[in-house]
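Q: What does the assembly look like in three dimensions?
Context provided by user:
Components: two
Sequences:
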Amino acid sequence: MLPNGEIAAQFLQMRIKHDRLIGAHKVFDSMRKMKIDAPWEPQRFSCIFAPTGSGKSTTVKVYIETVIVDYVIAQGLFPASMSRKEIAHRQHIALHVTLAAKATEKSFASDILTGFGDPRASRGTKDSMLGRAYDYMGAKGTQIMFIDEVQHLDHRYEADQKKSSRVFTAENSSVTDMMKVIMIRARVPIVFLGIDGARNLILGDDQMNMRNLGEIDFSQLRPERPAEQRMFVLYLGSVGILMQQRGIFPKESDLVSGEIPPKVHEVVGGRLGTASNLILAAATIARERGADQLLETHLSAAVDEWAIPAKLINYNPFRSGIRQRELRAA
Amino acid sequence: MRPQTRPELSRNHPQGATPLVVPVSAILSGESVAELVLRATALNSYRRTTHVLEAAGFEVGRHSVRIGSLSHGLDGLCVALGLPYGSDHLEHAAIRPITGKPGWVNFFGIPLRAIHRDARRRRVSPMSLRKSLHLKAMWSVGVFSFDPGTKELLLDRCPECLRPPTFSRSYGLQYCEFCVSVDRYGVTRGRVDFRDYPQPTVEINDLEALDFCSGLVDPERSDRDWRRCLHPEIGALEQAAIFEGILAVACAITSRVSHTSSTLERPSCLEEYQRFTPEVLARSSRMFLDWPDGFHQIAADIRATAGDRSGYYGVRKELGPLVAISMDQHVDPLLKSLFKRMIATDMERWDGAAQAIRTATYRADDDYVPVLQATKDSNLDSRTILRLVRSGVLPFRRLKNIKKGPTLVDVAALMDILAHRRETLSSTKVAVDFGVPRACLSALSDKGLLTPARHLLSAPYAMDYYERASVEDLRRRCEDRASLTPPPSGALTVTQAVGRLLPKLTNPWPEIFLRIIGGQLEVWNVGRKSLMSSLAVRDAAALQFLNAAAPGSLDADMVLTQIDAAAVLKTTPVIVNQLVREGFLSRKPTVTELSAFESEFILTSEIAKRFSALGHKLRWRDVPRLLRAAGVQPHILQPKKTLVWQRREIEPFLAAA
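A: Here is the predicted structure of the complete assembly.
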């Protein structure tokens, strides 16, 4: 299957609100409120640990593109006439920092500076870079910082093993200490985002734990829970409508009727982001076949051409039906 | 938080420029590019200004960029600093060289000599930093030791480490870049806050003049009405010309008196700008505010120190530093011409000639001229004129304590003397002309034979003068009586006859003149130079009448020359000179003194004559031997070994003979 850049771009720009996203945004709002009301006090953190493709990063992006952009426009920091995408890119009220692989203290400081757009983000000593980051946060009025891919703190993490060491190395400790200092020194609340295996890196430290506001639930949606099942179906329905609205297909696609939702759920393991990726593959196939809407056959073909090679699943539920033994417990 | 109103800069940044995280937003009042970059450095927590320049797309290498004179790549800088209005404002704040005017820079639209700025070190005003945390370009102008706004003296080095802050590093505009501390989180921060060290403010009487000076180049001053209060000649000048003129005057009034060069003594390095104290700047500014009186005031001050300056006379001696301004290459040509004219005016109007001497070139009046000029005008040699000066006859002016200062003589007095010389004859000349001792001339005047001239000399030894007409008339009348036929054999000149017949210190001459004029004494003209040597009598007996007549007296108080004294003593000037050297006579002997000498001493020649008159023919060389043999010892005058005898020891021998 050849990727279709046009369709992929449309999917990347899709923003679908769901209950978990809304819940996460409420937590983010409360953390910002904490910063605004107690600006000179050491701040706390929250965290989201979920498998890849759960929509963690997208949740942060949506938060910045909506809540934060509205906020900075209301504050007069950016003109309303400016592109919201550009505002989201240039604002520093909410800082989205993606950790580099095998993060060290210096690379962490560099990542923060990169988040600010510092031309000399990777230049200087660790202390000078960190001092600069503190100054930027103060100068820019940063209210919340998202630290993504925290599993990169674990140097023993092996991508193919999909698990991290439970041993806390000295380097891990120093970086987490640094994050703690940021909450104290820069007085900025932090949201850590990472895969499940990274949980121990953050919550394994008692001092860090004392500053934990709680973990935001972003785990896989379970079909046995009606609310989560409903959330999944609504998500698929929204994708079907958005594909028509974004011009991918002339007609709306019905992704909620029949056995489509449970079969998709079976393939993606209850991960919303992965579901979008599956539908993207199916849409690409449908466009290649000249269809005017996405059908179940296209989803079936996507499982064969994309999901099974990606080792998401080892059979095609659209062709053989859902194997009951493969259902995962909550 | 300041609104982020940066324009669309994310695309197509010139020269690879990247926006800084914290933009400077706007150029603050009084900031140039250097101060702006330093502020951007501090705002973005960079430690070196080169970091900002790198972000602006500069190739920052060793010695490649001097922030103090940054003038290119402004587009990139504008992007990096996030200036909202593009590079136009930066263009105004850029201090760049002026094309075609080497050594000058464009300082916020005002031409300024680059040497006046210190683009490497920064100075700060703690009080100004308290008001607004930004540096000002005026603080880099070394001329001013103070902040024009607050009048606070600028802090040019860290109060603790004593090192001057620069434009290369920063821990914040208000911090010393060398004194740092590490906070509890390991971040290095500035430790010495300049705002904690307020400096004294300038206390000066003429604040208006000081403000005028700083306002000429201060970009924060927008008052353009300053020309109205200036003299039109000064108001016609450019701001930069006036400012450079003020600095030139400040150089002039702070020049060392030992500065011998005719060029203006300007500061050779920035440390020497300490000469430009607020008081000095105010004084020199006041000159332009009070033009032209201000010029004359400064000129008077400079002239007052003329005595301390090297040289002897002239405009350079009196107004040397101002003359140097009129030739200075950095001063505006129009201002230089003004200075030249004002110098000439000042020299003309100045009437303090009693205090200083200068050439006639710069004198308004020609009442006094140098001796050289006087020699040309009067046809007298310089020795004569200087003799007149020394005698006090001729008024003169000359700097005191100057070895080679010129002597200016009073022209009117000199002309008066010349007229006097044309109409009169001195007693010396009359004495030579007549062949009679000078001491005898006053008696001729008493008899009405000569008419004395009015006195010009004030010195006690001044000679008498006689009207030339009376002298010539007396000579003519005597010569008219002389027979032109050859004189009889045995005839003697009158001078010879008097010498043989009469003793010393007698004055037979009035009687002789009267008898010649009256025709009672027959004389022949023998054609010599002096009158009495050119008239001859039959023999010495022809003057016997003098023995019967009452002898005339000599002028007792007359000061005689040594030649005159020799004539009175009937000896030679050489012997008189020896007598003066040995202390027998004074340098300026009077008749009274000669009489005293004559009564106490006797010379060998007179002794020989007296013996000869008594019938004892003796040679001069025999007289000492005879007298020594008789036990009489003379005084010996060296080096001619002339003998002087005590008259009281000799007279017994003469009486016995």
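Follow-up: The longest strand of chain B covers residues 642-646.
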